[in-house]
Amino acid sequence: MKEKKEDRRISRTRRLMHEALMALIVEKGYEAITVQDILDRADVGRSTFYAHYRDKDELLLSSFEHLRTLFEEQQQAILESRRTGKAPAVNLILELFRHIGEHHKLYKAIAGKQSGEMIVKYLHRYLYNLLIEPLTALIKNRKSFSVPIEITTHYLVSSLLSLMTWWLDNNMPYSAEKMDEIFRVLTTPCIEAAFGRKVEKKGAESLSGEPDGSVKAFYSHFIDIDCCPDK
After folding, report:
1. Do 17 and 49 contact (CB within 8 A), yes or no?
2. Predicted confidence (pLDDT) per residue in 153-167, tens digit
3. What domains are defined for the chain?
4. Residues 6+ apart with CB under 8 A from 65
5. What residues contact 121, with CB distance under 8 A and at least 6 apart?
6. Reported pTM
7. In whole angstroms, what separates CA 203 from the centre of its chain?
């Protein structure tokens, strides 16, 4: 019981610091914020802050940990779908667009600044690492493709983040769902060229149970090792 109370206390303290940082970013910009500003707003002590985070950068990046959880859930869900035939419940790309839409004031406050670049680099590195392993497994023991898998992965992740930046900079003229569809339309030719094979509607539907236009169906091509058999 004591341990559970301690866990709740830790979670509450971290949430207070996170909320303080987010509010301060919108108010004055990330670069102008000091650790003392965060302490004052969250009403916590300096020793408490440093018991959890090395600096304000680490606190900022920790704000995106729930996205890491979503990514991992997506991987597990699609792997499970291979076994059960049921559609995955988590849509990675959709969740990313929704997250940016819900926190657009925060993203606008850091866009084009050092903090924004740090977040983009963080997301790029994590998404790349998330995709490179299953994509590497995809081509294992198969003939080499015309484009190295590392380049394909980098291109897909960079395209996704670039599209998200455009969406934010232009005040989100389309819904998150529409942006999912746009990303699929733009990057499907890349996947077809890299894998040397057309992405067929039947294959997408058979894995995810969703129409080819859905994020679930599109993302299945990234990690299903049976999606692109040798010719």
Report:
1. yes
2. 899 899 999 999 899
3. 2-62 (1.10.10.60), 65-223 (no CATH)
4. none
5. none
6. 0.71
7. 25
